[in-house]
Amino acid sequence: MQSDAEKLFNRISFGFLLVGLISCVSLTDEVSKKESSSIYLQLGVRYMDLDKLEIAKENLQIALTKDPDNVQVHNAYAFLYEKLMDNQQASDHYERALALSPDDWSVQNNFGRFLCDRGKYKQGLTLLLLASSTQLNDRQWIALTNAGRCQLAINSIQSAKSYFEQALLLNFAYAPALLEMQKISFQNRDYPEARSYLGRYLMVGVYTSGLLWIAMQTEFALGSPAKAEHYQQLLVEHFPLSYEAKQLKPVLQ
User: Fold this and answer.
1) Would you state the CATH architecture of domain 174-253?
2) Residues 173-191 pLDDT 10s
3) Were both Cys, which of 75, 105, 177, 199 would link to 131 (CB 3.0–4.6 Å)?
4) CB proximity list for 122: less than 8 A, separation 6 or greater
5) How far apart are CA 62 and CA 57, in angstroms?
């Protein structure tokens, strides 16, 4: 027969085993929730890319329910609310994401751009420069381009140009920075440089009405009417209802 001490020991051992099993189940359940949240996050982002915002919101809501402290879910949710033009909800989710992970460069970049777009230039630029300076960010050129746009909004052209140039040093073919440099070069009447940036952009980007308008004006300024007419024709064909195309009507009539 077991002694009282042995019985007590067995009970304690069983108790520890039971606690251990409960802990394992709890831990497994927690991991499962996080993995599930990640799946719904990916679905939400995918539906956002497809512009199916209602379905995106449903998936992000499930992701958030499963893991309320998931930084990237809050980040994605904030971006969704930007698309839905709900600035307060977007700001709340960006702030929550930043509170959860102050050094997350993705959140810093998105929130910084959001703030600059809404006139909070100083706060926005501070976050964008943090995002562009961390070595953990393997796409620093995005934050630098957003910083340049933030500076353009306050008419700080030289500072903006510096940020765009830094972005292009890191990624020679980054279309948004090339597009901004084409505009700045044209405004500075540096037409050869504007043509050069246009050529680089067209290797990686798609036509916009603004780009074709500047391209047309650039070629006229450089004494190349045939090229100018080519861009004019593209503008009329691809963007007949654009502001720029409407400016051509008196010329075409």
Assistant:
1) Alpha Horseshoe (1.25)
2) 999 999 999 999 999 999 9
3) 105
4) none
5) 9
